[in-house]
């Protein structure tokens, strides 16, 4: 059954932030993440006829993006040549006598569970953001996530400061209600 | 008496200051007046609590998003590609 429709004109507005957030947690480079998201949209456009409508549009785009991220790592690894691991024992006097296990990164620094919970939280936030009217979502995103100054947003979107605060108030109200249902 | 210091907020003013405080845009005096309002206003106390929680949740999530300009560029590229595919 094909329940899901595909509409490339809406992709950037609906999914670009979600895909970008997904990518940046994996490649840790803004420019590279932007390129990968862009590539994903173009690749998705080319293979639109393969979309069967079984999964949602976003899930389908994420599956393409996953492959793009893997390809990216494959490419940089082949540039480097074969991966090489070399361990030097006791190269400085300070750590002399330490067990090897003591030298690896702190395992309690960030656990897999933390990362997973953060990803789910990010997903919940983007889902709520998608439910807001476009203008509210734009203003909220710029002010809260990008952390831009009020004047910058006002200039870019051509609105007054008091207008901005009214929009922010409505957006925050809606976001808090939505997250209360899905997260808090 | 126009420059008299304001000690009492109406609810909409209190909510506005609460919003500004989430972005560190509220002055110290505004924050004090907000807290005076919160002593006796249950509805605003609830709004403030939710608002602060929203701020901390978003901070905790550490989400990133694309800037406006970059999105516009992406849209341009994608629209060009959509046109090309529809011609072919």
Automatic annotation (TrEMBL), chain A:
Record-given protein name: RNA polymerase sigma factor
InterPro entries: RNA_pol_sigma-70-like, RNA_pol_sigma-70_dom, RNA_pol_sigma70_ECF_CS, RNA_pol_sigma70_r2, RNA_pol_sigma70_r4_t2, RNA_pol_sigma_r2, RNA_pol_sigma_r3/r4-like, WH-like_DNA-bd_sf
Domain (RNA polymerase sigma factor 70 region 4 type) ranges: 124-173
Signal sequence residues: none
Family: Belongs to the sigma-70 factor family. ECF subfamily.
Pfam short name (any one): Sigma70_r4_2
Molecular function terms from GO: DNA binding; sigma factor activity
Domain annotation RNA polymerase sigma-70 region: ranges: 13-75
Protein's GO biological process: DNA-templated transcription initiation
Keyword set, alphabetical order: DNA-binding, Sigma factor, Transcription, Transcription regulation
Record flagged with keyword Transcription: yes
Automatic annotation (TrEMBL), chain B:
Domain of life: Bacteria
Protein name as catalogued: Glycine dehydrogenase
Organism this protein belongs to: Mariniflexile fucanivorans
